[in-house]
Amino acid sequence: MKAIRLQRVRLAPGALDHELVWSVLFFCALIIVAFLPGHIMGRFHCFFFSLTGLPCPTCGITRTVQALAAGNIDAAFSLSSFFAAVLLICVCLAFYGLAISLLNLKRLRFIFSSEQGPRLFALALLSPFFIHWIFNMLRACH
Predict the structure, then answer these.
(1) Can you tell me where the transmembrane regions are (predicted)?
(2) Are the CB atoms for 61 and 80 separated by under 8 Å?
């Protein structure tokens, strides 16, 4: 028996359309960041970095999002290739969510065969994020 499997399901009547909600929120946030002037975004300071002198787990993501929102993919990947790749995956997922919602198609869902399945899945998704953070901290210390 597989621990995790992918299944296509229809949205139940009256159920919250998560694909539509998260897609709209993602695109709204992207539009806001794209149109915020750089001098406003430059006013935000990282509390974690100010306190510890080390890069925070999301260090560089604001500049990466700004570069991607402006269509400057090269700059985004030079700022943070990890977050640029994650954000491009999020863009693809947001388009998927809009298409699935507007066309009323079956949605992909992860089905877990054990109680530990969701935790292991979350760990698998978050591990690259923490590895990236450790790499950034080691690079900042040298």
Answers:
(1) 20-40, 82-105, 117-135
(2) yes
